[in-house]
Amino acid sequence: SRLANIEKDKNGHLYNRKSDFRVEYSILEELEHSMTVSRKTEKAKILQQLSKIQNNVKRLQQQLKDVKPTPEFVDKLKEMMEEVENAINAFKEEQRQIYEQLLKEEKTVINELSVFERKVEQWALGSSTTEKALKLSSARVSVDKTLGNHLPAEVVEFERFLQRTGGRQGGWDDYDHQNFLKVRTKHKGRLSYVDEALEYLCGRTKEDIEQHDKWYQEFLILHERKKESIKKWKEKQRQEKEGNLKEKAEKMLKEAWLQREEAQKQKAAERKRQQAAIEAWKKQKAIAFAMEQASQLKLEEEKEKKQQKERQRQCHVKLLLERYTLQKKEKEELEKLEKEKREEAEKEERKRIAAEEITKFQER
């Protein structure tokens, strides 16, 4: 609501088309527009980078749901994890460089504002005392309400000191203050410079110079505290931003690791279940194989018995055949012998008859 009111007041005063300074303010309007476009572009770029990192993490998480105990899978998983880590480191480094550039630009802006502030203070010194009091009162309220809630205490203390004592020159004009600094620096801050300073500071008394010296010493102390405080505050902001990025990255990696652990547990349980199923299947397969082997052995034994009986039968037949052949051969031999005997007897008979015939023929 407060920001909206400030935006409304700004647009009403600066960008009003009826304003007498419309031409000058149009440059600010264009600058604001270009910076708005730049911020949107930077935001889109950051969201794109974060989306890419998130997608890589999701891919890694998806791979962790289906873990394979192979070297190729482990190498692929390692490569994906390195890719995610490199993307996060690159994003952090880029944001760190952008942040450092913003710090430099902020320092430049602070220096420029200090210059303008000194100019305004010089203008204010030319106004009446009443006008100074009103401006200082208004500025003090502004510091209390705006800066006090957002800046370190040392910064607020320094600003209040300036408002209370007349700005960065302690209520002196620029000419007197610069001469004071020149002489004081020449004498390296020793009080011996007061006499020489009186020669340059017409209208100033020794008490004025000593009082201004006390103010300047306090100014240096508070200014140094302010610088150190701003440095620490910026460092704290940077560390918090880096810590948030690191914490977010570590959280993402931790979630990915936990999901990986859970996936590995589930995978281990699944492998155990599959191993049990495989063991049961192997046991069943072994029993079936043993039964098949026993059945096969029984069939082979029966086959062997049949073959043995067949061989015995063939041997018996062979013996019978050989016996029959031998008997037949013996019979043929006997018949041949008898035939030979018969033929021999017939031959002898024919010889006897022939001899008888010859004898009879001779006797005639």
Structural notes for this entry:
- There is one protein chain.
- It contains eight helices and no strands.
- It is mainly α and 364 residues long.
- Helix 2 (22-64) runs antiparallel to helix 3 and helix 2 runs parallel beside helix 8 (206-363).
- The relative contact order is 0.05.
Topology:
Layout: H1 2-13, H2 22-64, H3 71-125, H4 129-147, H5 153-165, H6 174-186, H7 193-200, H8 206-363
User: What separation lies between the terminal Cα atoms?
Assistant: 188 Å
* Strand runs, count: 0
Task: Describe the global form.
Answer: rod-shaped
Average predicted local confidence, pLDDT? 79
Biggest sheet: strands, sense, closure? none
Strand content: under 5%
Unreliable runs? 128-148
Features:
single chain, 364 residues, 0% strand, 8 helices
Summarize the structure.
The protein has 8 helices and no strands. By secondary structure, the protein is mostly helical.
